[in-house]
Specification:
This protein is mainly α. Helix content is 72%, strand content 0%.
Amino acid sequence: MAGGIMRARTGTLIFATVCVLAASAALAGPIVRYQQWRTMPDDARLGYVIGGYDALGGVIHGDDPYLEANVRGLAACGPGIGLTPGLMVRMVDVYFDQHPEAQAEFSAAGALHVSLLQICKDYVNAVRSEAQLQLLQ
């Protein structure tokens, strides 16, 4: 039972983080859904993901140690993996291709941030471990 509770808590934490990060990206620009994303010119898509990634630095951490750890881990991950705007555009495309159920309601910013958490899990977990927080699975 404890394992089920831990998995549920982890899923809830990831969902909450994605919501906050997606909201911060939305502050940087309009919410872009799948259909609009697919029809945007390349330069607009590049600008959108740059804004979404840059908005991570403006997230107010408050009293949420998990959110702060996630943001710090993602910030370290970008330079660590050689993250480029082109790679982030590809991450959004792949996410929508692999999750057609998300195409109707999920934003491109949400797809980006879920993908970043997956790709940057080791960086996020290093920060979480240092802070003695539960690790992403």
